[in-house]
Design brief:
single chain, alpha+beta, 5 helices, 13 strands, 38% strand, disordered N terminus
Length: 361
Amino acid sequence: MNSKNSLLATAFLTLATLPGMAQTEVTVGVMRGKDYGVTYMLPKTEIGFTLEVTKHTYTPGRLCQYAGQYLQLNNISGEKIEYWTLDNIQMQTVGVPDKEQVYFVKLKDKTVAPLMELTEDGIVRSINRPFSGKKPAKAEEPAPDKKPPLPDPRRFLTEEILLANSTAKQAELIAKEIYNIRESRNALLRGEADNTPQDGNQLKLMLDNLELQERALTELFTGHTDEETEIVHLKAVPAEMTGKVLFRFSRKLGLLDEDDLAGEPYYLDIANLNPLPQPAPEPETGNKKKKKEDGLEGVAYRVPGRAQITLRQGNNTLLKTETPVTQFGTIEYLAAVLFNKNSTIQVLFDTTTGGLIKVER
């Protein structure tokens, strides 16, 4: 058990076994002096973007100048080319600790304190429920698909090809070998080959081997492209915004910073779908009531708002979704009287939004 879990387990045991009569006092702020209790935080929403970008490197074949003459393949480049593609974009919202929303459950003498379960980050998960032992799930990144490299084409070159006295002659003989492989494959498919296997698996194995040979020899003319895929993570804190440059992308340079003008901008728009009404100003009076220094009575939780999040490149919309966002909502409180000595109330919170999931006896 790591140190965090040890401290957490100790807090559970202590809170669950304290006897008493008074209500639980919950105050904003951290533990003060020798006060005993539990400090917890509410979550705030963070938007995460997962980008899959691939670098393509084209290397021309050594016989590229003969591709049109012997294989009728035109427009084969004889120069090395590098370029990038943006293959996939995914978005997810996560709850992270809001260090500006820290609360302290103070345990008074003779208090029946609620059993509070926190995440490893200190976000409140539940009250008066059995310890779940739940740990945050680690998102597994999908491994980029990698094509196995083709075998060395020299393995398939005959003695006649290897002893050819010129590159042009080699190209001619290799092209003939490619056509022979195609004829052999077609004969197997039509069942006209002298050694056509009766077993389906063996036939597939022979066809796959012929295709592999053809591709390896053809790349001597067409060249080959290596692909290196990277997974990049970007974060954004929700706030109302329009036309915020999240990142830039260049086919020549790949993924760039938002202020690098060498790439095309990708814009992030966030709209608050249910903005809260502005409170009316309070009339000024000579007798202003002093705010209670000890804080608020009750357990704080979030009532998240909703946001529309759009990622676009110019006028082309790439992602558009509606999702709960804590920063667009409010903070409410469960009355401390719910957790007195006669309480059987159980509460479950959403650790992503801070909202209530379930309140039951």
